[in-house]
Amino acid sequence: LQAGHTQEFCDEELGKRVRGNINSQEFRSIFPNVFLSQASKAAGRFAIANHKGKYIARAVGQGISGFRANMACVDDPFASREDAESPGIRQKIYNWLMADVMPRFLPRAALLIVATRWHTDDLCGRLEIMNKNKIGLPWMVVNLPALALDPDPLHPENNDPLGREPGEPLWPDFF
Description:
By secondary structure, this protein is of the alpha/beta class.
């Protein structure tokens, strides 16, 4: 299951790219027997030929009943800072994750959340608090700030996971 802030984002920025990667020569050279099923070609829903499972992409908040997940990825659940600052929208996204997404998991399923942190009580913030209080599933939090922070001698586990120098950008070719 793949989710993002809007269906357009899921289709255009996620689904079409995944489909494109699967159809690429580089992918074929590594996985020569893996190719898309001709029966499903939608940007937000397609299958791998001769294999179980499929790729389903939905906007955060949309129904996903009837689907199961070996893995779910939520990429940018908030469309804007304004959404992230809204208590109602934050609660709606949290409720969707807990009530709709989590029950879809098959045994040993994984969840990946990639998000811009716009509010301390956003989805990642809530899950971090739950993790610290040992509520729910254990999470591994990987924080990659846009610019590497100064090392923290008291908490070396919080140091830059990529080993960047303080002030070094995450994506130097872009920012």
